[in-house]
Amino acid sequence: ISARSDMGNIILTGFMGTGKSSVGKELALRLNYRYIDLDALIVAEAGISINEIFTRDGETAFRAIEARLLSSLKGEENMVLSTGGGAVIAGENRRVLRELGMVINLVAPAEEILLRLRHEHDRPLLNNDKSLERIRALIAHREPFYADADVRIETCGKTVAGIVDEILIWLK
Ligand code: S3P
Measuring from atom 4 of ligand 1, which residue has the nearest CA? Predict the structure, then answer.
């Protein structure tokens, strides 16, 4: 399947550990689109890790950088963008995401997310409490924002290639 010139950007949203980066990279390869990771842009600009940004400057400062860098992508074309799990919370960000292109929300059950993130340490929102209850509470709070997508795709029990196939079929 080749890239369609009339297609806008593809934006991946979803909770931490739903596979946005792995799926985004593979999808970009398959479409011959550029892959951009919003968290990576933030880290590159700040010159420190996400944990360090949260510790040194706080979550509000992180959200401000996130919103600014997201806005700076307006005008991009042929891009697959994976966003951080909290990028959809701000209404202004959701407006920018929709303006940028097709919003695809990746979904996974809290139990699966806990498994996938058990060895990860650069998730400041889970560093102090990486429990099923904490993950469930965050997901519940964000659910209306994740639901504001063009399509939602369950990722549990599927391979990255399988998820990408599903997205490509849906885009046709
Ligand atoms: C966050 C998710 C992270 C990162 C930051 C905050 C969140 O991105 O942006 O730790 O609020 O859910 P990933 O979803 O890529 O882990």
Answer: 84
